[in-house]
Design brief:
Layout lengths: L5 E2 L13 E8 L16 H23 L4 E8 L16 E4 L5 H15 L3 E5 L8 H11 L6 E5 L5 E6 L17 H11 L4 E3 L9 H12 L12 H14 L10
Helix pairs in contact: 1-3, 1-6
């Protein structure tokens, strides 16, 4: 399968129009056994990979809706190099691709920040692909914060103590250093790091990541629970359809045994 998305090389200098904010989702090519492993069980590896694809498709759709009305561009910062064709049919065609580099997670975030600025973006948001129902208004709010003249950091808190989005106008390596990644201290430590370097902090509304059995159950409740139709989140149609078909086929006992 031939990739249809333009791949940007940060070492070739500016390649995008001035004045844009990169709405950049951090992504790993959806391969069974390599993505969403904390969801197996209750899901099978192939189901977890398919759900990961749905998450990415819905997150990219929300980003694209925001970018169409703002000075913003959808980007996928992906790994591994060579997997570009995997995103065909998942990402909107106007998304661009930028390869990840670095080993530790903090290094990858810092490198993505550096690379997107090299490419010519005025600002950027690095976004996880674990929050498919995140309201698109959060992306719009982040772009507005970063459009100001003030150098600042934008953080989208996750209720597990991490963040679903970090936005910057400049590379501040300190906010990626000394962070206990994958713990409930990530947000707190990032805010402390920003204050150490006198970087103003803007907080977006709190949302949640879907990365284990409990949060998968929470997602099902958001979609199919008694108040599901009143959810303020993004509709996430791909994710909703996948889970609806799975529940219809097998019943709710395997992935959603008890409604919260």
């Amino acid at each position: 399968m031939k990739a249809v998305h333009r791949v940007l090389d940060p070492f070739k200098g500016e390649q995008v129009p001035s004045g844009l904010c990169a709405l950049a989702v951090m992504t790993k090519a959806p391969e069974a056994g390599r993505v969403k492993t904390r969801l197996t069980p209750p899901l099978l590896p192939e189901e977890a990979a398919a759900l990961n694809t749905c998450f990415l498709r819905d997150t990219a759709a929300a980003i694209a809706r925001t970018a169409s009305g703002k000075r913003a561009q959808g980007v996928a910062v992906y790994t591994p190099v060579g997997a570009e064709a995997a995103y065909t049919g998942i990402l909107p065609e106007d998304f661009t691709l930028v390869p990840q580099r670095g080993d530790a997670f903090g290094d990858r975030l810092a490198a993505a920040t550096e690379d997107l600025l090299r490419i010519g973006f005025d600002s950027l948001c690095l976004i996880d692909s674990d929050s498919p129902t995140l309201p698109e208004a959060a992306f719009a709010q982040a772009v507005e914060f970063l459009a100001g003249a003030e150098d600042s950091i934008v953080l989208g808190p996750s209720d597990d103590g991490g963040y679903y989005l970090i936005g910057l106008r400049k590379l501040h390596r300190r906010v990626f250093e000394g962070i206990d990644w994958s713990t409930d201290r990530v947000l707190e430590q990032t805010i402390e790091a920003a204050r150490e370097i006198d970087l103003p902090v803007h907080l977006l509304p709190t949302w949640y990541d879907v990365d284990d059995r409990a949060t998968l159950s929470r997602l099902c409740h958001e979609f199919f629970g008694s108040n599901g139709s009143a959810s303020p989140g993004f509709a996430a149609p791909s994710t909703r359809q996948f889970l609806s078909e799975l529940l219809h086929r097998e019943g709710r006992h395997r992935i959603w045994p008890n409604e919260p």
